[in-house]
Amino acid sequence: MTQSRFSFSIAATDGKARTGTIQMMRGEIRTPAFMPVGTAATVKALRPAEVRATGADIILGNTYHLMLRPGAERMAKLGGLHRFMGWDRPILTDSGGYQVMSLSALTKMSEEGVAFSSHIDGSKHMLTPERSMEIQRLLGSDIVMAFDECTKNGATYDEAARSMERSMRWARRSREGFDAGGDHAARAALFGIQQGSLDEGLRKVSADALIDIGFDGYAVGGLAVGEGQEAMFACLDFAPSQLPQDKPRYLMGVGKPDDIVGAVERGIDMFDCVLPTRSGRNGQAFTWDGPLNIRNARFAEDMGPLDPDCSCPACTGWSRAYLHHLVKAKEILGAMLMTQHNIHFYQNLMQHIRNAIAEGRFASFAQAFRTRYYNKGR
Amino acid sequence: MTQSRFSFSIAATDGKARTGTIQMMRGEIRTPAFMPVGTAATVKALRPAEVRATGADIILGNTYHLMLRPGAERMAKLGGLHRFMGWDRPILTDSGGYQVMSLSALTKMSEEGVAFSSHIDGSKHMLTPERSMEIQRLLGSDIVMAFDECTKNGATYDEAARSMERSMRWARRSREGFDAGGDHAARAALFGIQQGSLDEGLRKVSADALIDIGFDGYAVGGLAVGEGQEAMFACLDFAPSQLPQDKPRYLMGVGKPDDIVGAVERGIDMFDCVLPTRSGRNGQAFTWDGPLNIRNARFAEDMGPLDPDCSCPACTGWSRAYLHHLVKAKEILGAMLMTQHNIHFYQNLMQHIRNAIAEGRFASFAQAFRTRYYNKGR
């Protein structure tokens, strides 16, 4: 049996929501999919087998972090990211474009790319579309993201247009760089990234430019950058429909559980976000009844499970009182268990979403989800 | 079948070294035993099942930390330490005496006990032999330690004598306090602690005082406080022999692998130490070839296992290069895997020690161990 490099099949639609599967050589990705973030070659505080046990089909790696430490050439020498970290299923890598602007010092952007200094040791680096493709190839990424500029929130129309146009030129250079990658290009997939800020016309120009180049999937970029959920949803009312129906659509950096439900409703298939991992380390747990902070004193003698509706190891093995104690005492096990629950919750949410779409009841699922999630009774 | 409250049987001796088992209601403890330290109701960075999988039969909990957070009365309300943290095998708790002097502020010692302020929130507390017994009962400890004063390193003969004599008065009050504990006293065991600094005569006076009171086991206290291995071993040349042959002897707070081998050689049956957990979080791994620091740059591209002679999950699942990366990047998974290896190494060492004693070849084992461990070839 021949394994497919990349194929996306939609099993069912319900309104604009879709459920299906992406087939890749390293495994199947059920959509809508949530990708836990493994910034520095680890989903923080979890072993790969623990990540997989939550139901995750794919994780995300950050090009910016990995190019600085351990370094792309070193990673290739060590056999690539999968072998390095012990995760044998698909990995999507971002292009580094977003984080180089938000994390590094002394950045200088030109048509060529971005020159910057490492936030770790001050060393000088240059990221271009071609170098980003090379790094993602050296990492051994399964889904490579085009190198783009994430247009800043609040950009004027002219700023958004100029930024989007540059990203489209970089998208073409990314395509060419990726295609020159030999064996890797024959195994991996490349996604383009739509920009255009919140403007419907610019988003359409961007979508058409990407379609003209041709990608395996299309991301909606430049959202979740401070515009707020209402503005994001308004943009998602038109942006996904401008992208091909038969390719996966990925909303980058999103988000809260209610963001995800609303974005699926608007035609999004893939998500990534640091929220479940980062919040977990800070003591925030996600539940069907909304987020709760386990540090709250009312949990100090609560012998019930973190989330009564959850079957994850953290919820079946320990009490809220114990997790409260661990997080207050800054114990590593607290970060481990809270993260494990949150990723489990996110994957369970995605499974509920997929089932609801498959069974043609997504609208009522979404309504029931929001009613319960926003009813902060606890 | 009736389960024994506490019984110690020696299966084999080899020189002064002994191997056997302690039977308790919550399970069997194979001796010589190493007890991982679970300071604040968690062996740092490991789940209880992961601790057990290393081969640990018993863990240690710290009375001082637990009485301050979550608090002894609260712990009792929550069902005790075992249920709280999810460890159903034996737990030994220390008396709080050592840590109250080393960690808390504004301590004031009298014949009654020690008044102190919490290092966490400054709250005022008092530890006495009676209160220490009560706290260890509230925690649900299986092996309770008498409340004593750890005589400081470098004490004069008179200081050591006065300190030891007070500890012996406190040992009697501990025995009485423990025996007044009702149900708990019928399930748990109480160990006395020998003091007397490095003086053979004082150690003998202390041993005789403890034997007169009568305990289930006897600790050699006041060592590993800065005197160095040579002085410690010189003391262990006589101190264990002053204690009953038919009861377990526990060397508190020890130690490095070579300390343990040398102490077993001198008749010690039980150990605890933060070294494998604390060092693990700092990047130090224990191996048969001595300790190594994974942060060292020479490991950055080393695809071999952390310890080629180890079968633990960290050594079979990942490379030195990956562990180097995780520890350098301060990733929680680095602490998790390094700790898992170190506790596994310690338990594996204890199993080798037990086998060597059982097979009457402990002296040659110890010799071979030292030759390899001190030959810092790597």
Main sheet overview of chain A: 8 strands, parallel
Number of separate structural domains of chain A:
2
Shape of chain A: globular
Strand order of the largest sheet of chain A: 4-14-13-12-11-10-6-5
CATH structural fold name of the largest domain in chain A: TIM Barrel
Instruction: State the CATH class of the largest domain in chain A.
Output: Alpha Beta
Helix residue percentage of chain A: 40-55%
Query: SS-based structural class of chain A?
Result: alpha/beta
Gyration radius of chain A, in Å: 20 Å
Task: Give the tally of β-strands of chain A.
Answer: 16
Description:
Two copies of one chain form a homodimer. Chain A is α/β, with parallel strands linked by helices and 378 residues long. Chain A has two domains: 6-273, Alpha-Beta Barrel (TIM Barrel), CATH 3.20.20; 281-374, no CATH class. Helix content of chain A is 43%, strand content 18%. In chain A, the strands form four sheets. Chain A has an eight-stranded parallel beta sheet with strand order 4-14-13-12-11-10-6-5. The first copy, chain A, is globular, with a radius of gyration of 20 Å.
